[in-house]
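Quick note —
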Amino acid sequence: MTEYDEEFLICVYFKGKGIYMKRIKAFIVENKLFSLFFLGMAVYYAVSMFAIKPWYDELYTYYSFISRGPVYAAIHWPVPNNHVFYSVLSAFLDYLGNPYIGLRGVSFLMSCANMLLLYQFAKKFLNRFFSAGVVFLYVAVWQVNNLSVQGRGYTLAAHTAKPSVPLPLRKRQSASTVFYTFS
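Predicted structure written out below.
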C-alpha cells in the first residue's frame, strides 16, 4: 500500500469538509467505555427495531401517512394521529424499501443520537466515566428503553428538546430566567 493510499483511507470527506478518521479513532480510544456501550446499544436497537411487533398506532401511522409519501404526510397535518415531522422523515426512509426501516428508522437514528448528545453534554460538566454513567442511567429507564425504536416520534421529540437544556446555563442570566425555562 502506498503512502497516498494510506492518506486516502485516513480521510473521509463529508460535504466538502474533511473529517479525519484520526479524530474519530481518538474519540473511540479516549472513550472506550462509552464507545463499547454505544455500539452495543446500537446493535440492540437495530435488533429491537425488527423483533418487536408493531403497535396498532404505529401501523395506523404507517398505512395512513408514511406509506403515502412525505408530501401526503405533510399536507394532512390536521388529521388525528399524524405526528407530522416524524411521518415526513419516515416517509423518506420508506423509500429504502423496508417498511420496518420506514416506520422505525427515524426512532433508531434518534435513539443513537440521543445517547451521543447526552454524553457530549454531560462531558462538559463531568469526567468521561460519570458521563458514561449518565448515559447508562438514561438508557436504563424503562420508558426510554421501551419507546426507543417505536415509530411514534417520542425519540425525535426528546432529541429536539435536548439542545434547549443548556440555554439556562449560559452566563449572565437571572435566576428567574432559569426557573421560567425549567417550569
